[in-house]
Each structure stands twice: as C-alpha cells, then as structure tokens.
Amino acid sequence: MTEPVILQIKRGEELQLKFNEASGAGFQWTYEAAAGLKVSEDPAAPDAGEDVGSDTVAGFTVTGLKPGTHNVQFTLKRPWETKPRETRNYTIVVQP
Questions:
Q1: Where are the beta strands (DSSP E) in the chain?
Q2: Domain 5-95: CATH architecture, name and number where available
Q3: Beta-carbon neighbour count of residue 58 at 10 Å?
Q4: pLDDT of residue 32
Q5: Do residues 90 and 15 touch, judged by C-beta distance below 8 A?
Q6: Can you give the pTM of this predicted structure?
Q7: What pLDDT does 24 receive?
Q8: CB 10 within 8 Å of CB 94
Q9: Counting beta carbons within 10 angstroms of the beta carbon of residue 51, is it exposed (0 to 12), middle (13 to 18) or buried (19 or more)?
C-alpha cells in the first residue's frame, strides 16, 4: 500500500483532483471518504487524445466540512472485478 498524499485546506475550501481513467476499457474511479469531507464527481472529460476509446479524465472536488484530519481513498477498477488496478490515498487536513 502506498503512503497517503497529505494535503491541507481550510474549512469550506474546495480541492480539485483529476485522474486518468481508461473508461473505454471499463475502468472507473470510485471513492470512500471520511464524514468530515464532501466529495463530488465532476463530469468526465476526454484526455488530449480524441480517438474513440481514448482515456478520459475523471475529476473530483473535495470540500473540507469539518476541521481535523480526514482520509479519502480513490480506487480505479472495473465494476465487475474485485482487484483494483490502482489505489490512491489522501490525508486531508482541514484547518478551521
């Protein structure tokens, strides 16, 4: 398991995260977040390549709701598979 990326934001502040995903091959990013954070999905946008089946960019907006240290985990996998292709962990420190 990789070490989490530690980021700091203020309460009410938004943080934008973007990840490449091979959506044409069925891969999707999902997330699990602590209660002190609000995570919303942004619409997927095509990557630089415009060919059919090109990667897309999955975007997420993380908002700090409650001061403290909170974790959020993003997982890239196909919905029908159990083993993720990639996992990214973030520790978000929300300042008052």
A1: 5-10, 14-21, 28-33, 37-46, 56-64, 68-77, 86-95
A2: Sandwich (2.60)
A3: 23
A4: 96
A5: no
A6: 0.86
A7: 76
A8: yes
A9: exposed
